[in-house]
Amino acid sequence: MSQMFSAGLGLGTRNSKGAWLEVFYPEPQLRPAQPLLEAAREVLGYQGGNIALDLSTMQLQQIADHLEANHYTGHDARIARAFANSTKPAVLTLLEHDDTPTDVPSAYLKLHLLSHRLVKPHQTNLTGLFGVLPNVAWTSQGAVDPEELPRRQLQARLEGRPLSVNSVDKFPRMADYVIPRGVRIADTARVRLGAYLGEGTTVMHEGFINFNAGSEGPNMVEGRISAGVFVGAGSDLGGSSSTMGTLSGGGNMIISVGTECQLGGPPLGAGDVYLAGQQA
Predict the structure, then answer these.
(1) All domains of the chain, ordered by start, with CATH?
(2) Fewer CB atoms inside 10 Å of the end CB: C or N, the chain?
(3) Of 42, 68, 222, 260, which one is the catalytic site residue?
(4) H/E element holding 110?
């Protein structure tokens, strides 16, 4: 088998019909270590390809046993052992190739790769991502299927613990899954999972960073970094500035901001944008 693209042990949420809503990968891997793949073949009968394998408590324990027996020093054995003690559904997602994501576990693994700084924007195939991700109510009690939300809200009221809905969206807050080292985020709701924040990035209250977009670091972000846009090191986005996302205009143009630039919004009443102090 050729070098695998990515793998991850994840813990997630399903709706009442068993469909995945989201998956959390504490230690996603790019070019994963062979012991994990050997455990997948030995315990789960994995024979290659891109697949998300549901894991039982016994299988999680067997994966941990296999890794420990082979003196593997990575975190996977510890994660598998911890997952075995949880009532939440677990999954092992294996991506032999960087193909289009076809299910929620593979889509979330790729978003984690970006936010863990294992790949940069446009370095993984996200074609068709919107069609794969479900719309989710992100609440104080975790991910909820919007169709099941009224029942959950009523039950929460009956139990005297009202349920707060933070957003209804396909993407969760990045900070609920990972906070990269060396960053500041004034309002975590404004950075989606799948954003790439290089070390030294500061996102102020009105700043926004979409998925498959981000900053090399260090950067000051007071404006919008739209989907697909990457901002080079030392460049700052001033308040009210905005970059046109790669998804705009048919998605055929990749947009970026170079290094040591300053992007500012127009003064009130004007229609011009100023880049690096010059009218653009």
Answers:
(1) 6-132 (3.30.70.2010), 136-169 (3.30.60.70), 174-279 (2.160.10.10)
(2) C
(3) 222
(4) helix 104-115
